[in-house]
Amino acid sequence: MTVFAKIIAGEIPANIVYQDDHVIAFADLNPVAPVHLLVVPRKPIVSVATATPDDEQLMGKLVLAAAEVARQQGLEEGGYRLITNVGRNGGQSVFHLHVHVVGGRALGWPPG
Ligand code: AMP
């Protein structure tokens, strides 16, 4: 069971900012920007690489929820970044699909 599955199950605490039947969003424990949230599907998909056509609607809900959370956090005007890391080279450390919502400062490009 991943740490995110435990948060979804209510077994460990998180600073939850949004939830519905399909997704949950909470503050990242180690923020890299003034606003750093994680938007996570309740379904335990490992990453976008293992999502299937059955997940098409859920993927849409995930991205729309990320945009809604960013809006609620006041990031829309200044802009922000959505990131989903995949596997070793992508820097993924929790193997339950999640979208990082990062904002509140100017972000560099390209990523390191
Ligand atoms: P990634 O490296 O893309 O898999 O991102 C995993 C993220 O989960 C990292 O940014 C961690 O800081 C974050 N994280 C790990 N454990 C927790 C936790 N218990 N609550 C909130 N965020 C966490």
SSE blueprint and pairings:
Blueprint: H1 3-8, E1 16-19, E2 23-27, E3 35-41, H2 56-72, E4 80-83, H3 87-90, E5 99-103
Antiparallel strand pairs: 1-2, 2-3, 3-5, 4-5
The structure holds adenosine monophosphate.
Describe the structure.
By secondary structure, this protein is α+β, with helices and mostly antiparallel strands. It has a single domain, classed as 2-Layer Sandwich (HIT family, subunit A). The chain is built from 3 helices and 5 strands, in the order H-E-E-E-H-E-H-E. The chain has helices spanning 3-8, 56-72, 87-90, and strands at 16-19, 23-27, 35-41, 80-83, 99-103. A 5-stranded antiparallel sheet has the order 1-2-3-5-4, with helices on one face. It is globular, with a radius of gyration of 13 Å. The model has no long low-confidence stretch (mean pLDDT 98). Residues 3, 14, 28-30, 38, 85, 91-94 line the site of adenosine monophosphate.
Summarize the biggest pleated sheet.
5 strands, antiparallel
Q: Mind telling me the C-alpha Rg? A: 13 Å
Number of strands: 5
The SSE string, one letter per element, is HEEEHEHE
Low-confidence stretches: none
Helix/sheet category: alpha+beta
